[in-house]
């Protein structure tokens, strides 16, 4: 090992998972949002009557041509919070048509024991494909507009095709719930406890009026909280998404830690409350739901991650959103190839399965890079790359003595988390303790060096995320 020295500067597989006894607690742990909670719990045969109330749609994606490649053993489910105002939803305004009030892709990776929910801002202005008319939708020509217009013009089928073409991610299923279903589901839980940091008043969100502090939100208050824009933060859809992610995490905690699963009556009420308000594709059958539940039975709340598509103000309208490049493409590539959790494994610096390692801020980590190869300038190149990720450069040079066979991040005692944070950014690296080091880490680049990862855990390059376990329910 190098000595301390002064720097020398220069779906389950085919939806056919083995069926075994299902732990209800683990089934719930899979669910990223209330939508997915409902769809998975209906896998119980005793709830066939509830399942049969769900509206199922036939989706034809042939008009969109070749679809993205599906990764074996992985599921991507499009989650929609519908803003339809017909029927019982008429109390929430008179807007015409139907658009996604909330839109996300739940990426479920059973083999990695993780689920990642990527939120797509409703204010995203994107290039949309042409969509054929349906029985109740006019269809659309190819044009540029806010992403929700695809659903309004061509229904879920058009939105599905649009999302696939924009992201190059293969979508396997969709789940949609409306306002009333969301509200009644929260009430069936007995409310969801949240820490409200500041008083909230928003007349446009159901006359929402919440005091600061720890509160248990009922269905009406919860709906107002997740829909509110003008009464909280900067009034943007992005800050609203951040609150929605917090609420979904808190809701998951409520389900896992409460009596929903132990009380048949509560569980029946929970499922029945949303069945009439839930829509799925006709491929999302009870059998498929059961397969998903079995495959993901070991997922914990800390392994359910929420991220948002990297974005910024649209050049033509600062009130709208444009996806940032290359970060958004990197994020979608990591989802499409099931590499989105690479930075969260045992060699990473995040909170992988069973890993209690705290999150490390790169700005607190100093790294000296030593070139153990005969490639000139490699140490400087790697040091510059780490600096671009926020780590503190602490010089470059060459190792004294023999270099390791594998690129290695050496760390002083007590700095293992920091070393894993650095290693998580590299395509090939291991970590090792060096008692001779005091504070600065030492990365020795070996002949196995093959660059930086294009995306870290929880999203594309430099995309921050939060887990369901991070939701703050107590003040």
TrEMBL record:
Segments of this protein annotated with the region Disordered: 337-364, 455-475
Ranges of biased composition (kind: Basic and acidic residues): 341-359
Domain of life: Bacteria
Domain LytR/CpsA/Psr regulator C-terminal: start-end pairs: 364-449
Alphabetical keyword list: Membrane, Transmembrane, Transmembrane helix
Domain Cell envelope-related transcriptional attenuator per the UniProt entry, residue ranges: 99-255
Record has Disulfide bond as a keyword: no
Transmembrane residue ranges: 27-48
A Pfam match: LytR_C
PANTHER family per record: POLYISOPRENYL-TEICHOIC ACID--PEPTIDOGLYCAN TEICHOIC ACID TRANSFERASE TAGU (PTHR33392)
Cited NCBIfam families: lytR_cpsA_psr
Family recorded in the similarity comment: Belongs to the LytR/CpsA/Psr (LCP) family.
Designated name of the protein: LCP family protein required for cell wall assembly
Lineage per the UniProt record: Bacteria, Bacillati, Actinomycetota, Actinomycetes, Streptosporangiales
